[in-house]
């Protein structure tokens, strides 16, 4: 992804738009549980790279983001490389073990997110 000046956080935005279609900044920030200004900065960077563009929404205040033609091409190329990497790292692991891992990892991620959320709440209490 570095070939296209993409970080993982920028890839997340591209991935979301590709899979969910044109989306608002709020949709994307809710998906990744990130503040809207953070998503705004990511989208601005993707606009600078001509990967996404804004399209008119029902409401002028609502920004709807979609991939450009270049964004579609970059998505396909990166997705291909990611799939190749996934195949390499899964080499020698049978399908049953892979399925167990795919079911377990989201649970691990949810636990991490819960813990980070509770740490943030605890730090707010301590700061008071």
UniProtKB/TrEMBL annotation:
Keywords of this entry: DNA-binding, Transcription, Transcription regulation
Keyword DNA-binding: yes
Record carries keyword Transcription: yes
Residue ranges annotated for the HTH marR-type domain, each copy included: 1-110
Pfam families found in the cross-reference section: HTH_27
SUPFAM superfamilies in UniProt: Winged helix' DNA-binding domain
Name of the protein in its database record: MarR family transcriptional regulator
Species of origin: Laceyella sacchari
């Amino acid at each position: 992804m570095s070939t296209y000046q993409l970080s993982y956080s920028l890839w997340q935005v591209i991935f979301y738009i590709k899979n969910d279609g044109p989306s608002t900044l709020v949709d994307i920030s809710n998906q990744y549980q990130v503040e809207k200004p953070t998503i705004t900065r990511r989208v601005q960077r993707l606009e600078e790279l001509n990967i996404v563009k804004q399209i008119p929404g029902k409401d002028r205040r609502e920004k709807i983001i979609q991939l450009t033609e270049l964004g579609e091409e970059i998505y396909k190329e990166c997705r291909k490389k990611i799939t190749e990497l996934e195949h390499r790292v899964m080499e020698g692991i049978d399908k049953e073990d892979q399925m167990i891992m795919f079911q377990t990892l989201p649970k691990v991620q949810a636990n991490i997110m819960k813990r980070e959320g509770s740490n943030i709440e605890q730090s707010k209490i301590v700061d008071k």
